[in-house]
């Protein structure tokens, strides 16, 4: 069967976590997401790879730092999560992925590929600006316990604030799962969905009524959503924890 570009992109999104355990992802903060409320007693020593970095400000040479991109989009719209396998990805209007290598205190960014969404307006401009910063050789500096500074070849400084990744907090890799959630006036119901190796829907679990219990996810009334989560083992409470990764599919089921 011939797989088109958009289908291949969808398969990639389904099969690869947004915040990969062994790669780098730059993403827009998901719409509808809420702050994580899970707690864990593990103290995480910050590094490039065990923190999720949120862009805070950009300072071009001879200018004051600003919290807005040139398009007016807030810098904090974008997050970076780094890992170990030399893959760097961005997600905004388009999804972009690049190769990268850490050499001393430098990040060497290689050319990459992008999806072909016809982005326009402020978000498209913001994506272009961010991708423009992530090219060539960048130097990096970890400052204190939660700050990362990336400096481009033209001395533009990106300042990011970090929080421990879920992999660091829970001391292990999360298992990818998919949850189908339907929210209407009568309430919310959800069930697990299992995919085969080709990511074709295979089996459905039983429906459950009530909140789905995914940390960081808020269901959207009137929609069917296929939510990708990562399941971790909380060693403090010896219980399973579902953490929001991304919404893979959205379908309007009512206009009310």
Structure overview:
By secondary structure, this protein is mostly beta strands. It contains three helices and 15 strands. The strands form two sheets. It has a nine-stranded mixed beta barrel. Strands 10, 11, 12, 13, 14 and 15 form a six-stranded antiparallel beta sheet that branches. It is globular.
In short:
This protein is mostly beta strands and about 260 residues long.
Topology:
Blueprint lengths: L4 H11 L8 E5 L22 E9 L18 E4 L5 E5 L3 E9 L2 E9 L6 H13 L2 E8 L3 E5 L5 E8 L1 H5 L4 E10 L2 E9 L5 E4 L3 E2 L13 E12 L4 E14 L4
Parallel strand pairs: 1-4
Antiparallel strand pairs: 1-3, 2-3, 2-9, 4-5, 5-6, 6-7, 7-8, 8-9, 10-11, 10-14, 11-12, 11-13, 14-15
How does the overall form come out from the CA principal axes? globular
The structural class is mainly beta
Strand order of the largest sheet: 1-3-2-9-8-7-6-5-4
Radius of gyration, in Å, reads: 19 Å
User: In sequence order, what are the helices and strands, one letter per element?
Assistant: HEEEEEEHEEEHEEEEEE
In DSSP terms (H or I, runs of 4 or more residues), the helix count works out at 3
- Cα(first) to Cα(last) distance is 39 Å
Helix content: 10-25%
In terms of per-residue confidence, which ranges show pLDDT below 50 for 5 or more consecutive residues?
Answer: 1-41
Please report which band the strand proportion falls in: under 5%, 5-15%, 15-25%, 25-35%, 35-45% or over 45%: 35-45%
The major β-sheet equals: 9 strands, mixed, barrel
Count every beta strand, where a strand is a DSSP E run of 2 or more residues.
15
Residue-averaged pLDDT: 79
